[in-house]
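Why do we care about 3D structure at all? Because function follows from shape, and shape follows, mostly, from sequence. That is the central idea of this module. The next example makes it concrete: a single protein chain, its amino acid sequence, and then its structure expressed as tokens.
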Amino acid sequence: MPKIARTLVGFGFLWMSTWATFGALLGARLNQAILNEETPWLNSLQRSLLRSAHAHMNGMALALIALGLSYMAARRRASERTLITCSLGALIGTVVFGGGLLLEAFFPPTRGQISWASALTAVGGVVHLLAIGLWGIIFLGRGPQSTATWTETQ
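And the structure:
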């Protein structure tokens, strides 16, 4: 398995365990808020953004792991340069999106303006989605081994 594929899988599991731990801490804070009847925090934008960060980051970690595990199959369908570009885009997009979403919870947007944290989140999300989308397109295309017609193989 190439180094970039191992990096995707390893970082994916590390990212998932980090955000799962974050979710456990968020759950402990939720229990404290319920016991202390902190209704404003329970209904706050901050809590919603932190929950969203936890869920999104675990999902993105699974996507990174899937990219790493499918790397060898993708190698038969695309150039190494394309695969490395997709891989780095997915990694960087994941980190930027996660960091931006976390920052959004503590630096909320003001009415009528897009905050710098929201812009950072959007950029990271777009980069990640483009990388994952290109990876999907690689598998939708015809590979070199599928150029023969069905009648030629019989």
